[in-house]
Structure to design on (130 residues):
């Protein structure tokens, strides 16, 4: 007789599926904590992947910043030393300044410096607002 009832109702499968259905119907604090922990871990993994993706970009950014800034500072320091101490021929400094102005080196350097430091600045403003 029990075999007949088991065939009709499906035995332990129905009970197990019913219990699983009841378990899924309620979202406990423990399940919320586990899901929150998984979400935090996933966000951390995504940030790491994003930083790894930006690595070549950061190297290029540093090369641009250093190369243009070095050239700009070299011209400026030569001009200051030439004007103050007479160590450098002022005609050559004027030629270098004319060259820098003709290629808009000042604007290029300012753009690169803004590009280099701007990301961190914008990020810090975002953190302050939070």
């Amino acid at each position: 007789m029990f075999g007949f009832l088991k065939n009709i109702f499906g035995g332990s499968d129905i009970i197990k599926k019913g219990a699983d259905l009841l378990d899924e119907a309620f979202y406990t604090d423990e399940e919320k904590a586990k899901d929150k922990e998984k979400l935090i871990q996933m966000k951390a993994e995504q940030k790491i992947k994003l930083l790894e993706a930006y690595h070549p970009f950061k190297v290029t950014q540093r090369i641009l910043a250093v190369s243009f800034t070095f050239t700009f500072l070299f011209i400026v320091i030569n001009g200051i030393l030439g004007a103050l101490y007479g160590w450098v021929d002022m005609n050559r400094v004027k030629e270098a300044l004319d060259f820098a102005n003709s290629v808009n080196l000042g604007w290029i350097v300012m753009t690169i410096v803004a590009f280099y430091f701007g990301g961190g600045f914008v990020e810090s403003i975002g953190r302050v607002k939070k």
About this structure: The chain has a mean pLDDT of 77. The longest helix spans residues 29-85.
